[in-house]
Design a protein that fits this description.
By secondary structure, the protein is α/β, with parallel strands linked by helices. It contains six helices and 13 strands. The strands form three sheets. Strands 6-11-8-9-10-5-13 form a seven-stranded mixed beta sheet, with helices on both faces. A three-stranded antiparallel beta sheet has the order 2-1-3, covered by helices on one side. It starts with a strand and ends with a strand. The relative contact order is 0.21.
Length: about 250
């Protein structure tokens, strides 16, 4: 089967980045998904874009890594403070002794275009460009076409975040990922790891806040760092969401 990677980015002068999405889809659906992503770019709560970019690349089937989705646990929290306490708890359970410093550095990622790549032990920042950060790309869900169309036309924060987190923490040098969406209307975030899966924290910021950012916690050598960055930014991945395992819990 011939496939294509489609990436959409939209921005305007007031907010900068407004919207972004990507898909890996069959050739026969290319025109349809370009239209869906264009419509999504034009209907964002941050306003109308004055710049929209669609990037389309052919993808060979042999290039694609197929992964099962991480198991999902939802932790119900009633305030950002309670949510951050939950994140701290999971960081400590992962054996990360400088959990408080990781949280403080997480806030520095809010102004970045991509993710902060942070040494999990030394707290050294590893991304080559501190403004751009590391962008995990070339990924999509592997599920029925109806579900993909729905997620394409209307942002599904959960599915898109689960796909990204599954790709990121599947790399052996990534200890965990932390994320808060920069969408003002979405206050849920997560911590993901191979050990615990995808831990969805229902409240990590105040409603209406445009602040959001991402940290990849890395452990390894310099050569492993370069290989990890290549994987995050170049490896094509499809994540199977057809057999999700989900658990609901509270604090």
């Amino acid at each position: 089967m011939n496939r294509y990677s489609i990436k959409m980015r939209a921005s305007n002068k007031e907010y900068g980045h407004i919207s972004g999405a990507e898909k890996i889809i069959p050739e026969e659906a290319l025109e349809q998904y370009c239209t869906l992503l264009l419509a999504r770019a034009l209907r964002h709560s941050k306003g109308k874009p004055d710049f929209i970019n669609l990037k389309i690349e052919a993808v060979e089937e042999a290039e694609i890594l197929h992964l099962p989705a991480l198991n999902v646990t939802t932790v119900e929290t009633s305030s950002p403070e309670e949510g951050m306490d939950a994140v701290l708890d999971y960081l400590r359970r992962l054996g990360l002794e400088q959990a408080e410093q990781i949280i403080a550095l997480w806030q520095q990622s809010y102004s970045m275009r991509g993710a902060m790549l942070l040494d999990a032990d030394t707290m050294k920042r590893l991304e080559p460009d501190r403004e751009r950060g590391i962008r995990a790309t070339y990924m999509d869900m592997e599920t029925g076409d109806e579900a993909r169309q729905s997620a394409c036309g209307n942002k599904n924060h959960f599915n898109e975040a689960l796909v990204l987190a599954t790709k990121v923490v599947s790399h052996p040098n990534i200890v965990a990922e932390l994320c808060i969406s920069d969408d003002p209307d979405y206050v849920t975030g997560y911590i993901a790891s191979r050990e615990f899966g995808y831990i969805r924290i229902t409240t990590l910021k105040e409603m209406g806040s445009p602040q959001g950012g991402r940290i990849f916690l890395f452990r390894g050598t310099e050569d492993e760092k370069e290989a990890c960055i290549r994987y995050l930014q170049q490896q094509k991945v499809l994540v199977d969401l057809n057999h999700l395992v989900t658990v609901q819990t509270g604090r």
